[in-house]
Amino acid sequence: MDKNKQKRARTESDKLARSEAILEAASVLFDKNDYHQITMAIIAREAGVAKGTVFNYFSTKEELFLSLTGKYFTRFFEKLTVILCGSGISVDRTPENLSVAIYEALESQPQLLRIVVLLSGIIEKNVTYESLNKFKKALLQQIFSIGLLLEQHYRFIPSGSGKQLLMWSYGILIGFQTLANPEDIAQDIIEKEHMELFSFDFKQEFTQLIKMIALGYSKEEL
Predict the structure, then answer these.
(1) CA torsion through residues 2, 54, 110, 165, sign
(2) Confidence label for 10 from pLDDT (cuts 50, 70 and 90)
């Protein structure tokens, strides 16, 4: 193990760098493993620090993954901003285009697609009021900001409804991700008993429903 990584972080910049290194290690692990298989000890080993060091920065595994979720959301909103402001998409401001833009931003963050299913049911149950409040406020600010951007780029979205569209998209994301990724036993039954109705294509269903919502907005405008 690199001894330099075990030196105590004394300055604020050192502490921030250590915290980021721990989060990056957790992200690398989450990319390849189920959330429930990852422990703080495994994260510490991946980050090259002592287990106690990880607990100095994050009091629980859920606290750590809450911070990581915040990073995934930030990257999603950054990607969506790039897509919306990119020259290649600016000429086509249709409901279908909107659904594709949101999906493409989500597709670029596969870890976000996985972790949102765990957020309310598991992660938020073992975090402090202060950390969850901070997370929610940061997320709220991003939703308001990108909601306004959506209204600017898609004129059929009524003023003030951009944030509503994003929240609907968030709810749809959680539900559809769950349907699209059933437990192994459920998937086995679907296949063996020919219950095709329960076979769920996330991309197809997600973009279709967002498009329908956007079409509703465009009809209201007319």
Answers:
(1) negative
(2) low
Q: Which residues contact 218 (CB under 8 A, 6 or more apart)?
A: 95, 156
For 60-69, 134-143, 190-199, which range has the lowest pLDDT when averaged over its residues?
190-199
Instruction: Note if the pTM is more than 0.85.
Output: yes
Tokens for 202? 């996330």
CB 108 within 8 A of CB 76: yes
The burial of 111, by beta-carbon neighbours within 10 Å (0-12 exposed, 13-18 middle, 19 or more buried), is given as: middle
Average pLDDT of the chain is 90
Answer for the pair 18, 57: CB distance below 8 angstroms, yes or no.
Answer: yes
pLDDT more than 90, % of the chain: 77
Tokens 């998937």 appear where? 187
Dist CA 75 CA 107 (whole Å): 11
Domains of the chain (ranges; CATH) run: 1-58 (1.10.10.60), 59-221 (1.10.357.10)
Q: What is the DSSP letter of 13?
A: H
State how far the alpha carbon of 124 is from the alpha carbons of 62, 118, 186, in Å: 7, 9, 27
How is residue 116 annotated by DSSP? H
**Secondary structure tally for the chain: helices H, strands E:** 10, 0
Residue 93 · residue 154 · CB < 8 Å: yes
Contact 104, 86 (CB under 8 A): no
- DSSP 8-state code for residue 129: H
